[in-house]
Amino acid sequence: MSLAARWTRLLMVVSAAGFAGAAYAIRAMMDGPVEQYSGAALSAAIVYAIAVFVWPPVSPLVAGGATIAYCWFIEFAQLTPVPAAISQRSWFARQLLGAQFDLVDVLWYPAGAIALAAAHRYVRARGRSRARPSLAES
């Protein structure tokens, strides 16, 4: 594994922990729409970080699309009784699966994924421009 992939994976672990910490801090300090909307967006951010952790060379478009698809799959699965039944047995499962469908979450997952995909694209482009010597330097 390359050094860049190791640093990327470390950054994704730190990022996911930071997103989770921010979500729980917001939940502890606020109640209402801000808590709900930020929770959905930060959940998507965690999934995005996991996608990049699993496959560091993934493109921002693929990571963002996979994140949104996964989040929507989990949210729409909540229309069945399965996630709620599993969530009743485990706090961890409740964090991963939720317990009830919320259409507002469906709308906020892309906010978290798109924000990170944009940042990911910017960092990649900046890294590529630094790697290529400019004509003035040649």
Could you name the key traits of this structure?
80% helix, mainly alpha, 138 residues
Mean pLDDT: 90
Low-confidence stretches: none
Shape: elongated
Distance between the termini: 31 Å
What is the number of strand segments? 0
Q: Which structural class do you get from the secondary structure elements?
A: mainly alpha
Give the biggest beta sheet: none
Element-by-element helix/strand order: HHHHHH
Could you tell me the strand content as a percent range? Answer: under 5%
Radius of gyration: 17 Å
Helix content: over 70%
Number of H/I helices: 6
Structural overview:
There is one protein chain. This protein is an all-alpha fold. 80% of the residues lie in helices and 0% in strands. The chain has helices at 3-29, 33-54, 60-77, 82-89, 91-97, 103-131. Helix 2 packs across helix 3 (60-77), helix 3 runs antiparallel to helix 6 (103-131) and helix 4 (82-89) packs antiparallel against helix 5 (91-97). It starts with a helix and ends in a 7-residue tail after the last helix. The model has no long low-confidence stretch (mean pLDDT 90).
